[in-house]
Amino acid sequence: MMDTRSLRFRMMVLFTAVVGALLAGSYLSVFALLYTEVRVQLDRRLVEIIRPVMADLIAEPQVQDINQLNLPNQYFELLDSSGKVLQQSVNLQGKTLGLTAADLDSNKATFKTIENADRGHLRVVLAPFRQGTEQVFLALAVPLRGIDRVLESFGTIIMILAPLSLLLTAAFSAWYVGRALAPITALTQRAEEMAERVSSPEHRKLWTSLVVKRPDDELGRLADTFNRMAAGVDAALSQLRQFVSDASHELRTPLAVLQGETELVLSQPRSTEEYVRTLHTIDGELKKLSRIVQGLFTLSMADAGQLRLARDPLYLNEVLEEACALILPKAQVKGIAIQPELSQEVSYLGDEAFLRQLFLIFLDNAVKYSPPRTSVRVKLATEDGVVRAIFEDQGIGIPTEEQPRIFERFYRGAQAGPDEGQSGGLGLAIAQAIARTQGGSVECESTPGVGSTFTVTLPMVRPNGPVSG
């Protein structure tokens, strides 16, 4: 039955159902909170009333104070430990509240709600204390008629507001969904015109059509239109579609974590420790997103030929030593030794920040994919007008069939872990882009179960003057 309805109708029903459920939950929660808070405030008031009376009884145990009390809507009884009534207020007129020894607790004050045949619904507090050498209990009861009326009135208001809110929600959703779908309908018409101009029978054969489950609604027609239009541009957009798919996959997890943590912390008041713990989680996910976005920006600049590297005089061995120092704490956590062999000074003309990032990517991967208590060797050598930075690890290695794809963006081999490391899953792609922009290249040799060796080859570009260290 639902499949024959328009998309507008289905969205309206879904929107109304969701909002209706949320409204029902909200109304019930408010009613429960009001009920609880009213009881808490009433119990607090009972304690405030009974405290001075109990103090007088302790100070003057022989005086029959309770028998003289006649306060409106406040009923007092003094009971012994067996539940026998010793004194009672005048307004009880000789009739007890009906409390028994099972209701008494000598360790703490207790609260209960009782139904009295003469006075109706009552809230009672029973406070234990010692009068001389005897254990006695002072009971104070107040009627709940006023509170019951308030709660009943509030419940009636909710019963009126709930269907009214649902009707208003349905009306608003019908208007809003219709307005939201109008541009899609117009876009479908324009896309149909464009598809007629760019499509051809030969191209259509290269395209695998989208499955249209509901071809009669607005989005179904839009999907059908794109099936025809995409045939003419399939080859040009295939690489872009793959990149967007990979990027969305990488971004989805941190965004879902951020949304979940934010909704959880806003759902109710939390302690300071919980807020701090949530903020730490959010900070970690934001840093992960920042690394991914920065990596995508670097790659987009490199693709456009606009990745501009500085040409500053520096010592390449010092940059590599600094990268080793930065990765050392992470390596020490796993008991991995970083073994730099950088005795040779290599003066160079390049971008220090990008070169450090380049070296950190390989060091981070080496630490991440190496088992504990192994070592990572780092060497720097110059020959034949080039300089080579070599990173050797004793890690899990890369299967032969995966090695041609390791520099693809977001590519993950079968043994890759969930940690994105320094560059948000784009590390090797960024490293290759930096090396190529610098005029160099990256090579990989790997044996599964033995380890991997990455070699960064850069053209030797020496500064004209001395390098300041």
Task: Give me some keywords for this one.
single chain; 18% strand; alpha+beta; Helix Hairpins; Heat Shock Protein 90; 51% helix; Beta-Lactamase; elongated; 8 helices
Unreliable stretches covering 5 or more consecutive residues: 200-207, 235-239, 419-423
Approximate strand percentage: 15-25%
Q: Main sheet?
A: 5 strands, antiparallel
At the third CATH level, what is the topology name of the largest domain? Heat Shock Protein 90
Total number of domains? 3
Second-tier CATH architecture of the largest domain: 2-Layer Sandwich
Sketch the topology as an H/E string, one letter per element.
HEEEEEHHHHEHEEHEEHEE
Output the number of helix runs.
8
Q: Shape, please?
A: elongated
Q: What top-tier CATH class of the largest domain fits best?
A: Alpha Beta
Report the C-alpha radius of gyration, rounded: 38 Å
Multimeric state:
single chain
Q: Kindly state the number of beta strands.
A: 12
Average pLDDT level: 78
**CA distance, first residue to last residue:** 77 Å
Helical residues, percent:
40-55%
> Which structural class should the secondary elements be placed in?
alpha+beta
CATH evolutionary superfamily of the largest domain: Histidine kinase-like ATPase, C-terminal domain
Order of adjacent strands in the largest pleated sheet: 2-1-5-4-3
